Amino acid sequence: MKVGLFVPCYINQFYPKVAIDTLELLEKFGLEVGYPLNQTCCGQPMANSGYEHLTGSTNELFTQNFAGYDYIVSPSGSCTLHIKDHLHSDEAPAEAKNIRSRIYELTEFLTDIIKIDNIKASFPYRVGLHQSCHGQRGLKLAQMTELTAPAFSKPEQLLKMVNGIELVPLTRADECCGFGGTFCVAEEAVSVKMGKDRVADHIKNNAEYITAADMSCLMHMEGILKRQKSPVKVVHIAEILNAAMV
User: Which PANTHER family does the record associate with it (predicted)?
Assistant: First the structure.
């Protein structure tokens, strides 16, 4: 199985350890992982701001970079969903269509494709799990609490395999953090208030760390935590799943 690693631009620029942990994690499960060096932003910020008609070159580049891989895996639910729903190519439409059906967010790939049932990782801390909106509502990584349906969470399923971890129950398990990509720029006050509410839920329930499958949400909450001088830290789920893994 040949896997292409898609690293979102903000992870590449600000949180490279998340990309490294994702790579190491996939390799530890025996996968052949390739990293196209020419990859850039997937175009989601432009598309979310109403400029999808300007994302043509990013779409073509993405298609060129990831053609030929059995699967494409990314440590970002929002970027994965954007590619899955919007990637198109005038030069290679068939390949773009194939990529849309072969791209997976990391936890989705681990649970649904290679179906791991054991992770030799250790993270002895109290952890609150933030269910990011794009992952939960777009990729169906977890059930929405407003639905009368069986509960599930793919990120939680993986975290429960980690030695020493204590998952903290939250009062509002799937509440939005308020980041929303360019929403946090266009609606700053609303975004900040939502972020403060989301952080407060974790703090109230004595979490030492907040984790998620989207570093963008964690980045937003990290800014709020730092401004509040809170000891609570953020950590991407890939960093937990790769922690002390042997």
Answer: LACTATE UTILIZATION PROTEIN A, UNCHARACTERIZED PROTEIN YKGE
For residue 168 the two structure tokens come to 């903290």
Residue type, 86: H
Which tens digit of pLDDT belongs to each residue from 129-175?
999 998 999 999 999 988 889 999 999 999 999 999 999 999 998 89
Domain that holds residue 109: 2-113
Alpha helices in 87-228 (DSSP H): 93-102, 106-108, 133, 154-159, 183-186, 188-204, 215-227
| Residue 230 and residue 136 in one domain | yes
Strand partners, 233: 209
Q: How far is CA 81 from each of CA 59, 62, 127, 224, rounded to the nearest angstrom?
A: 14, 14, 25, 26
37 plus 69 within the same structural domain = yes
**Cα dihedral 91, 93, 81, 119 sign:** negative
CB 243 within 8 A of CB 123: yes
Token pair, residue 214, equals 């989207």
Is residue 83 located within the same domain as residue 161?
no
